[in-house]
Amino acid sequence: MTVMDNHDALGSDGGSRLSEASARDFFELLKPRVMSLVVFTAFAGLILAPGHINPVLGVISILCIAVGAGASGALNMWYDADIDAIMTRTAKRPIPAGRILPQEALAFGLTLSVFSVVILGLAVNWFSAGLLAFTIFFYAVVYTMWLKRSTPQNIVIGGASGAFPPMIGWACVTGGVSLDSILLFLIIFLWTPAHFWALALFKMRDYGSVGVPMMPNVAGEASTKNQMIVYAVLTAVIAVAPTFTGLAGLGYGIFAAVLGAIFIICSIAVRRMPDGDEKMMPAKKMFAYSIIYLFAIFSGLLADRLLAGVPHLLGGLL
């Protein structure tokens, strides 16, 4: 069965019946692991932004961003159900596994998209709502429907969708963007290729089986590994930049530099890995570390902001 045949089969049930999907199945459509990263970086953007936001509005902001991210995930799973059914990594997702019908996932994703954007606009501000709407559109349409299946630069360009959440959190407080919020965006944007290509290296057969032009399949392993080093270096450099703009202090800068050095070392280890290595342990280790790295960078920014406020708190008490 070809990819298109499989897509037709998945969508051939029509709208005459509903599945017996559980709440857990619909929750899985939201890509909760990805959502957790989105929520955390959006929260960081909201906390790091200058000014104040009512705590209730802050909670609403994060919830709307989380729902918008989940909506993007549902729309992605709806469109990619044909290739998800073939790839071993995704074959057990709700749609290819037959637990949720494609039209249900589409309706679910569209409903959540509209809900998240409208509520954020009405409750917080329309700039942040517009940015959330653009992020959903970018991930669901620009990346999923266009870039993913047409160019090996899919992750490089499409990575912007995952980099917007801290900017949205920032905009919820300030009603706009700034150099510092752009730096938060760039940290994730530049981190994404090295992170995802590490996964693509040990999932080459999966992507090759469905014709998705991931960099290792198109440019080869050696070229991909070289590019991973470049992006790891760029990420390490830009992650230290908040120290120089005043967003974070020297302690954060040292912390980020150490984490970045390890990130670069991991990418070099991947470069030294022989092409065709079946175990792919360096790539798997880099993929795992890259997730820890991003959480640690944003945790460091939050800790720096918290510690910076301690002297003022003590001064008020004394």
From TrEMBL:
A single Gene Ontology CC term: plasma membrane
Catalytic reaction annotation: heme b + (2E,6E)-farnesyl diphosphate + H2O = Fe(II)-heme o + diphosphate
GO molecular function, one term: protoheme IX farnesyltransferase activity
Main location as per UniProt: membrane
Location(s), subcellular: Cell membrane
Function text: Converts heme B (protoheme IX) to heme O by substitution of the vinyl group on carbon 2 of heme B porphyrin ring with a hydroxyethyl farnesyl side group.
Name by which UniProt lists this protein: Protoheme IX farnesyltransferase
Gene: ctaB
